[in-house]
Amino acid sequence: MLKPYETELLGRVEPGFFIDGRWERPDTRELFNVHDPSTGEIIKSVASATVEDALRALDAAAGAQQTWASTPSRVRSNILRRAFDLLTARKEDFALLISLEMGKPLAEARDEVDYGAEFLRWFSEEAVRVRGDYRPTPEGTGTIVVTHRPVGPTYVITPWNYPLAMATRKMAPALAAGCTVVVKPAELTPLTTNYFAQLLAEAGVPAGVVNVVPTSDPAAQSQALLADARLRKISFTGSTAVGTALMATAATNALRTSMELGGNAPFVVFEDADLDNAVQAVVLAKFRNTGQACTAANRVIVHDSIADDFVERLSKRVNAMKVGRGTEAGVEVGLLITPKARDNVSRLVEDALNNNATLVTGGKPLAAPGNFFQPTVIDRVPPNAALMNEEIFGPVLGIFRFTAETEAVELANKTPFGLVGYVFTEDLHRGHRMINSIDTGMMGLNVGAISNAAAPFGGIKLSGLGREGGFEGIHEYLSPKYTLLPHQR
Ligand code: ADP
Predict the structure, then answer these.
(1) Span 191-216, pLDDT tens digits
(2) Which fold has domain 265-453?
(3) pTM higher than 0.70, yes or no?
């Protein structure tokens, strides 16, 4: 049952789509339901945008593109800064909304609001700092001038696991660069994005610059938008299967793409590591968002000589974790987003145990309602088990024991993914060796949480391409333009 304040908050969220500065909810559109995943209760119904609606959204984005691109960057910056201030002031509402539709613990939802808001602040600062470059031609006959222009109308597809932060991480740099956007939130969590679009309009984003088209048929909408030559860019966060298929489609119109796809992060603990720190960090890196994060520690690779100690300290901590509905006090572990996701986690656990791994704690789904799963630790998982090869996306921590550094590196890199790696050692030289030998786009040295708006987030291999945040982030939405200034006619 929703509390009165929750009902009132949900009542403030627009239940349709946002095109050219107007909210629409025509009676003729199919509705799709948003659930509280911990109870299955329908908390709101949203009108599903059709392909025609999405194309109208692109009309609006394409129509607004030139004016937005030529709007002074200081003006774009000020709008983003106002959005940061509004979001920060409404932190509690956004956190509650995220927790209600997605199920994460409220404390984590608050962290998501802080993290998501930082992209608005960072890119409000970056908007006015896009620098060009000039250089003489080697022949000495002219000057090469390089400037940067917005890529153009951008299609943004976000996942359900961070419904606010994934939207701001894409929209803030796009808007800062001077691109207009059509946003498709995940169908499981459209409410946070709609509420955020309401906030952006209040912050002064002009009509047509931001359009939001939630839909229950993402494939049809995406195909239609990607086929339209006015679209110039797609930015996607989600599964590798969907992302690579979208890249193939995007190739037809030679679109710029930014892809944040799956992860399979190694978390390596050496014998000289500060164990208390490593245990605290692995709990954070694994159980954050109930394991439903692409940065989650997926394969914990621990030196045999300290593994017993590590597992004992870890299991004590994990046993003490409270599981429950995100809005309940003291909850550290929430639920899995769907029954299918929970069943997949069960399958991975069973497979590991069938492969002679040792169950230390947890291991079972909890009774309905809600797709809860016990926080789980499994020791001595062999490298061939599915748990060591697939993205777990759940509260299950599998441990592999190693003896030689080369073995740890080999296992860490034995994956088609390359998003993030975590290494724990007090040996500076070994730390540097590991940073250089683990094939990922990001590393945490003696730390289990690395996301920061000022840093370039992104991966290599099947984890995708492009970077979000940092100085790099805005360039995903800019194209360099070179002009030759000859010195003589
Ligand atoms: P997950 O497994 O984490 O849900 P998905 O890749 O399925 O990851 O979802 C991420 C985003 O991609 C969501 O917004 C979802 O609606 C969207 N999506 C899913 N299938 C397609 C598709 N065929 N075309 C375009 N977008 C899709």
Answers:
(1) 999 999 999 999 999 999 999 999 99
(2) Aldehyde Dehydrogenase; Chain A, domain 2 (3.40.309)
(3) yes
